[in-house]
Amino acid sequence: MGRAELEDLATLADPTRARILRLIRDSDDGRMLVGRLAEQLALRQPTVSHHMKALHADGLVVREPEGRRVWYSIAPTQADRIDALLGADTRFDAAPDLDRISDDLSLRFRGVFSPQTVRAAVEQSRELLAQAGATASLSSRTAAFAATRLEALRRSADPPTGTPTVLFVCVQNAGRSQMAAGILRQLAGDAVRVQTAGSAPAGDIRHTVVGVLDEIGVAIGDEYPKPLTDEVVRAADVVVTMGCGDACPVYPGRRYLDWELDDPAGKPVDEVRAIRDEVDARVRGLLDELLVDRSPGVSPIR
Length: 302
What we know:
- By secondary structure, the protein is of the alpha/beta class.
- The chain has helices at 3-8, 15-26, 34-41, 45-57, 79-86, 98-108, 115-131, 138-157, 176-188, 207-215, 230-234, 269-293; strands spanning 31-33, 61-66, 69-74, 165-170, 193-198, 238-242, 255-258.
- Strands 5-4-6-7 form a four-stranded parallel β-sheet, covered by helices on one side. It has a three-stranded antiparallel β-sheet with strand order 1-3-2.
């Protein structure tokens, strides 16, 4: 995403405009009238019209005159980006199929964990994500989070493999920790395992964070805020905290770092870029240390 596109999407920082786009997108035929939007939002029509003008000026919606009425719909070229920012279509908000998820993960971890252990991990993962406010893609996130936790539990019980695991933890797991994780994955590839978590996770990653990472060629794909759990900390060799205080449990044999970094929440794009660049510098320094620790004749990071 280019700088101009990212700044255009800053209009979605206004919660009313985000709600307008969600109502339009999730409507039966994908379009809405200003009067109908005003009714659903409990706002005056002039107020809604003001927001619609801003959304239209930014190219996020298109106008479709029909006699004396004007319909608004999502601009086709912006549909994927708006979906990424708003989360899943509410028409697909069915409850997660925990039976199917548990069966699939039991197959994946057969011979490692019992079906009962897998089911417990799935149910708890779903509950933790729901408590954190996750609504978009709750089923797939439940499956991914449960798999991550089970894999961490398996690794913590196995002898070291020589590939270090780094866990980045901040408060909401929607900004700084996601920046650090994305950059480290990009730089290290398979040489380092990377995990993230939040002491009080948000529902989704901030769109400005996704945008400033995209600018430097770092994609964070299907990442999402995850609650901090015990087994993920146990599986880590290095735990990097960023403003989450004493929320992270401390275990012997792990290296703990605390990075003092500004929170990008609510900051303009230029300040978020500056935070990204500071994170980038710290990640590069950490990676240099990890690579040295894996060199012949050098003691491992534990």
